[in-house]
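Researcher: First entry.
Model:
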Amino acid sequence: MTSRPGCACAVAAMALMTLAFAGAAAAGELRATVRNVKPNQGKVMVALFDSAEAQKAKEPRAGYFAAALGTEVQVVFPDLPAGRYGLIAFQDLDNNGELATGLFGIPAEPHGFSRSARGSFGPPSFDDYAVAVGASGVATTEIRLVE
């Protein structure tokens, strides 16, 4: 029986690649369309939360901001582990990086939640605006800004 030196190396390399891909964690993606944006006024800011506790502590997992050029903004959060995520958005009309509020802490700038969730007498609960993201694939949601 004869041995081909290149053959053993190729088999070993293929085995290592298979193990590397099998061990790689799959990740999902969350895409949102922010609607009802006032064109050419400030920025749209979106925070991604992975739990009600993180939202309450104001500790987003990730953030995104884009110039408000049209009436819609597309937002993509890639490489997310499987789980539930909620998005909170607002249009920063005065460009100060914070949601302006009025009397009793009521938002004074356009704002919204994933799944276009709305609360009564306050913001919706995390369960109301959470979106399930799988270990792979794309989850989509809509955020409708309201004043």
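Researcher: Second entry.
Model:
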Amino acid sequence: MVDKIEFSRWKNVPEVVKIAEDIGAVADWYLQAASSNKPEDRVQARKIWAQLSDKYWDMLYALVDAQTESFPSVLTFDEQERLFINFGYLNDMITPRNKKFEPLAVLKSISSVGVFPYQAFSDFIAECWAMITGQPIPAPIHGMSTEKRLQGLEGQLTSLQQERDAELRMILSRDNNLSREELVDVLTDLDQYLISATKVSMRVKEYREAKEDVRQSMSQDRFRYNEAEKTMNMQLSIAQKDVIEPLGLPEYEEFMAIHEATKTVARKIVYTAQETEKTQRRAKRITNTCAEFSRQMMRRELKNMLAKKKEYMAVPSKTARCDQSLLNPQDSEPILYQAASALVEEMANLDMDMFGVARIRMYGIPRVIFIPGQGFGTYDWADHTILLPMFPATSVERALAYGLATFRWDSDEDRILKNTYESIKDNKGKSILEMAKSFYKDYFLWITKEKKGYRILPRDTHKTFIHMFAPRKQED
């Protein structure tokens, strides 16, 4: 007989207790069938596992109902509840853990600083409740608030600029083409005017709708940055041609990588800074819709929002053709929020133009929600969220890249990507679904291999991706 399941906060709530008992009974039945050597019992075990998997949602709804009964201003989940909600873990008998699944490590993991807002599934549920009830959106337990992300990104930028400036001083110290005062002016302009120049080049709302004097000032900042960058490039060119001690290509490329990184982080800062208004607008829309609801209707609305998310949470496992259960799989270890989000940011650095699509201009940066279950990442069009399974199929890189690829494909409303991609000879005659699957796979190879210098894709596909992802003018 399996160990008793008990959620300590709700051990006296009849509905939670009943579902826990039901899970235990089905789990007993499953373990008996799974341990049998008879083929028919093994077949039966797979059917019983499907029934047991369905109990995930029964228990989730019961936990939510138990907490919203008192109509709290904020939903909170303890460690035991988060292990269940975010990883599908109940106990080691019903949902045995992979030896690398350390509960303390996953519970303490927090997403890295980045342009995407990251959430665990339990964070998403708490956010939904806050919007329904008109309360301030709580900071995610496993992610960062917009303010902290901005602080982190600004810290990254400062660090990169200091590294870039030190390298440039060292490179240019080899000759006297630029005086010390001129060098200081160049570095000051590169550091001081980067954000303003980035806003102008992206034509953000702040610039487009500013008064004429402010627009002129921002345009002047951009001019100063561009002039400083031209001077920098000219001096680097002179250094490369130096007769005595020429600047080598590896050293030049390393320096330019740091410089380009400053511009990438600057764009992330601008995108993140614009997010607050769009997040507040989204929250207000949901709050206004539910304003006249009774408490019972608000509680029901939360379950409705979770039911809608349930449909998309089945997609990752279907795409990867693996077990569709949201319960913890014994043969897989979960990803840690910190490492996974850092890898997503690394991929985003190689495709920053994704943030210029119309859907982001309208709704903001999509939230990244880590969900229980296995499979490849996907994009929830209805809720503008990227869903990443806690237990990736095949590889972490593929699971995360598929999430970005799905967003790229589904947000291509002007068909810039689709029309180009379908022109590839191998894609002729494919259905839209077949072409999408092909694109996800090719994008994964493009972002993890091709963008790093490895030729993997067929010649025509390689050329097409270069064309599809050629830099385009950024507009907000």
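Model: Note on the second entry: The beta strands are 118-120, 367-375, 378-380, 385-392.
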